[in-house]
Structures are given as C-alpha cells and as structure tokens.
Amino acid sequence: MSTDVTVIVLFALAGFLLGGVYSTWKTSRKVSIVLAVLAALAVAGGIAWWVGS
Predict the structure, then answer these.
(1) pLDDT tens for each residue of 1-53
(2) How many whole angstroms separate alpha carbon 22 and alpha carbon 18?
(3) What residues have CB less than 8 Å from 14, skipping those under 6 apart?
(4) DSSP letter at 2?
(5) What would the DSSP string read from start to end of 7-48?
(6) Are 35 and 22 in contact (CB under 8 A)?
(7) How far is it, in rounded angstroms, from Cα 34 to Cα 5?
(8) Mapping DSSP to helix (H, G, I), strand (E, B) and coil, where does residue 52 land?
(9) pLDDT value at residue 1
C-alpha cells in the first residue's frame, strides 16, 4: 500500500470513529471517550506517517 493511501485510510478511520463519538455521546459517555481517544490516535498516526514519508 502506498503512503498516500495509508494516510487517507487513517484519516477516514478517524472520521468514522468521530461519527461514533457523536452518535454515542448521550447514551454512553465512556464509550464515546474511548472512541475519541482512538480517533486522536488515528489522526496522529496519519500525520506522523505523512510527515515521515
């Protein structure tokens, strides 16, 4: 997989996780916080992968 595709996949994953945060915020705050942390890690990983290449 090329670097560009990997970065796009990580950003898409972060967007998907942020959608989960939005949809679960009122019902389960703990799950939302975990999803938000995972989204932040995906964004950080995408940026690190992009800068590192």
Answers:
(1) 677 899 999 999 999 999 999 999 999 999 999 999 999 999 999 999 999 87
(2) 6
(3) 39, 40, 42, 43, 46
(4) -
(5) HHHHHHHHHHHHHHHHHHTTT-HHHHHHHHHHHHHHHHHHHH
(6) no
(7) 25
(8) helix
(9) 63
Query: Tokens for 6?
Result: 């990997």
Residues 42/14, Cβ–Cβ less than 8 Å: yes
| Backbone angles phi and psi of 2, in degrees to 5 | -75, 165
Token pair recorded at residue 53: 């290449």
Q: What is the pLDDT of residue 3?
A: 72
Integer angstrom CA distances of residue 43 from 2, 4, 6, 12, 13: 17, 14, 12, 9, 9
pLDDT at 4: 86
